[in-house]
Amino acid sequence: MANDPQYEDQVIRRVLAICLRDEDTDAAANPPVVCLQGLAEELKGEKAPLMLNKDTIDRAIMARLLDAPEQYPQWPLHYLIGCYGRATAEIRGLSTLKDKDAASRIQLNLQYCKELIASNAGLLLTMSDSLFPQPAEALTQGPLQLLDGISSSDSSLPAGFLEDLISRIEQDDLPDLMITLIRDGINKKLLQTSPLGEYSALLTALHRLTSIKPVSRALTHSTQWLGSQRAAPQLADNGRQVLSATLLGPAFALTVVPDPLWTNANRPQPSVGEQCFSDYQNRRPGDLMASMQSLRMTMSSVVDSLHNICMNFLRNQ
């Protein structure tokens, strides 16, 4: 069975959530199965069987992205991330096949499929305005579409996806993509977040990115690493300038002490004062000490995370 071309066709169709016949379309599936009518017509014209294999995977992915359904519940990037995860799951499932030669061949084809998925995800992020159709909101988000996946404690990015994606992005495009993700995504949220919020999750995202050697090298060689040339002469004399102008400055800006320059509009949330020290005049000293001890533990964890991020840069140079 595993050596049957139909079996390989079924595996690829499950991974890409596509079909080549209208009767196999399934809008109720998760994710919905889409019929690639254009590719089916091409294969008929070539007198080729309506089945997917290694030779047609690339064409299938391109056809699916170029003719994406308007009401599809996933953005194209999220669709590709899901495909990558399903390919990984199918590879794990091959261990149960008795025909080891067939399992090895299908595994190689699925690895090739994962490479194509990562390559097309890179194209989506670096050529989003000209190659594949995307919803307006997805275009606006750009690289920030990755943020939830890398900052989640139970990452929604399949194992290996981020590394494969980065390895397939042109080196000239990598710095701008990563700087956008960090400056406009992670840093912006860091400045809005107190230690009682998702600060640790955001540092986890930063640590995950900087642990990848091409990323950490691209960041340190970027002109954004120490901020603009105009701001550089002031950095030694102005601590606030370091925090605001440098690429990693916002990650080191965390404090539990109110800043006199904070306003209601830019005060990090949740408020440490309101949650830990409200009505402090009428509270038991033991309660206040417990709040302070909790904050010390939180800040200790943040310091450890920042240390690990800095070590990533040192190791990867």
Write structural notes for this entry.
- This protein has 317 residues and is an all-alpha fold.
- Helices cover 56% and strands 1% of the residues.
- The protein is built from 14 helices and two strands, in the order αββααααααααααααα.
- The chain has helices spanning 5-16, 37-45, 54-66, 76-93, 100-126, 136-141, 147-151, 161-167, 174-191, 199-210, 213-220, 239-245, 272-277, 285-315; strands spanning 18-19, 34-35.
- The chain has a two-stranded parallel ribbon.
- Helix 10 packs parallel to helix 14.
Briefly say what this structure is.
The chain has 14 helices and two strands. The chain is mostly helical.
- Number of helical segments? 14
Q: Estimate the strand proportion.
A: under 5%
Number of beta strands: 2
Strand count, sense and closure of the main sheet? 2 strands, parallel
Major beta sheet, strand line-up: 1-2
Radius of gyration: 24 Å
pLDDT < 50 runs, ≥5 residues: none
Mean pLDDT: 88
Q: Provide the helix percentage.
A: 55-70%
Order of helices and strands, N to C?
HEEHHHHHHHHHHHHH
Shape, per Cα inertia axes: elongated
Structural class: mainly alpha
The N- and C-terminal alpha carbons lie at a distance of 49 Å
